[in-house]
Amino acid sequence: MKFNRLENLIGALSLEKLKNSTILVIGLGGVGGYVVEALARSGIGNLILVDYDIVDITNFNRQIVAINDNIGKYKVDCFKERIESINEECNVTIYNLKIDNDNIKDIFNAKIDFVIDSVDDIRAKVSIINYCLEHNIDFISSMGTGNRLDPSKLTITTLNKTYNDPLARIIRSKFDKNIQKKITVCLSLELPLKVTDKTVIGSNAFVPSSAGLLIASHIIRKINETK
Q: A Gene Ontology molecular-function term (predicted)?
């Protein structure tokens, strides 16, 4: 049995909850890709994946589907194939699109238990957060992981408690303080490091992936807490 060691850890009932859950992951980059990987290997039964990008050579230092054979392929297609090779019982729905206010409702056409926002675009991020808040859907939003080297500085908190994160500062400006308390985020408390070329965000294999795994752990534990 593929998940017998996980079942030994969390119990058969909890594993069944995971199998019956539907998780939406928006953004399949360095963070979102590892969220998907961990969820697929945790027996999640239904995954909805959203991304508009292709695998590029600049992804190789941090993204799990970035291999030579995948260059030029859409990330959603690569992940669908990967998940099905890990857990053939997982139902995978993919959307090859960029989220905006006009199309966001199209991907929420199923009962979704949890949403992961791991996009970089500010407008898309705000749209996702607003939609989840308005429809009372559990979610977590990934803040910045670029220009950092220390994965031990990653944490999960609420938006109002964030600091040392330029992306979180921008997102905070979009919501009043009472709303900020309702927005769960994953961020690094490490100050962004100075880079040689300021036009490019520095990145590595271990901080974004650690953020993705931390988010996946948060989701698995949240699902198991439900009755």
A: tRNA threonylcarbamoyladenosine dehydratase
172-206 burial code (b ≥16 CB/10 A, e <16): bebbeeeebeebbbbbbebebeeeeeeeeebbbee
Residue 217: which domain range? Answer: 4-225
C-alpha to C-alpha distance for 7 and 16, rounded to whole angstroms: 9
Tokens of 43: 């027996």
Summarize pLDDT for 28-87 with one digit per residue, the tens. 999 999 999 999 999 999 999 999 999 999 999 999 999 999 999 999 999 999 999 999
Determine if residue 13 is left, alpha or beta; phi over 0 gives left, psi from -120 to 50 gives alpha, anything else beta. Answer: alpha
How much is the average pLDDT of 87-103?
96
Please tell me the total count of domains within the chain: 1
Give the integer Cα–Cα distance in Å for 75 and 84: 14
Tell me if 13 sits within 8 A of 219, measured CB to CB.
no
Are 24 and 35 spatial neighbours (Cβ–Cβ below 8 Å)?
A: no
CATH value at residue 46? 3.40.50.720
